[in-house]
Structure formats: structure tokens, C-alpha cells
Design goal:
Blueprint: E1 4-7, E2 10-12, E3 18-24, E4 34-39, E5 46-51, E6 57-59, E7 67-72, E8 77-82, E9 91-97, E10 101-102, E11 106-110
Parallel strand pairs: 2-11
Antiparallel strand pairs: 1-3, 3-8, 4-5, 4-9, 5-6, 7-8, 9-10, 9-11
Length: about 110
């Protein structure tokens, strides 16, 4: 099983920015679709963005124009650049490799 380790979460004011990183333990990373998901308290986990091995991206409507997903296959790492953050972006953010591999999550809190 591939290990995924997220980092970069924290507390930020509305309108601020954060960049999340997710490092994979295996170079098979480069062959798989990667995704960022989030789960707010009392809500179901939802898709934020995905990126294929070839760099094709998909975004949830709620983050289009504010978030950018990217990947560095040489570093086995996927990123999520989050700009213009809103309180409703507060959640635990998880990365996912393929279908079955999930990271442990990183907390993002947007609050003044």
C-alpha cells in the first residue's frame, strides 16, 4: 500500500492562501490519478479537485477559480494551492491516489 502524507494545513484568515502538499511513498504515483477531497464537520467527504497522470484537471464548482491542483511526478507529490479562502472552505483535506489509497488528512481552518 502506498503511503500518502499531507502537509500545509493551518489557520488562515478569510481571503488568505494556503498550499497543501501530499507526498507519496512510491514512484507508482506518476501513473495514477490524484485527488484532493475535504470533509467538514457533520458533512460527507466531497471532491475538491483531481489531476490525471497527464495533467488534466477537474474542479468542484465551489473552488473553481480559487484553487489550483498540480503535481510533480519527479517528487511523487501533488499540491493544492488555495487562494481567496472562505470560512466554508474549513474542513479536513485528504489526498487520494487512485481509488483505495488515502492520506491521513490535514486540517484547514478559515476564520478571523
Amino acid at each position: 500500500q502506498v503511503q500518502l502524507v499531507e502537509s500545509g494545513g493551518g489557520l488562515v484568515q478569510p481571503g488568505g492562501s494556503l498550499r497543501l502538499s501530499c507526498a507519496a511513498s512510491d514512484s507508482i504515483f506518476s501513473h495514477y490519478i490524484m485527488g484532493w477531497y475535504r470533509q467538514a464537520p457533520g458533512k460527507q467527504r466531497e471532491l475538491v479537485a483531481t489531476i490525471t497522470s497527464g495533467g488534466i484537471t477537474v474542479y468542484a464548482d465551489s473552488v473553481k477559480g480559487r484553487f489550483t491542483i498540480s503535481r510533480d511526478n519527479g517528487k511523487n507529490t501533488v499540491y493544492l494551492q488555495m487562494n481567496s479562502l472562505k470560512p466554508e472552505d474549513t474542513a479536513v483535506y485528504y489526498c487520494r491516489l487512485g481509488i483505495a489509497n488515502w492520506g491521513q488528512g490535514t486540517q484547514v481552518t478559515v476564520s478571523s
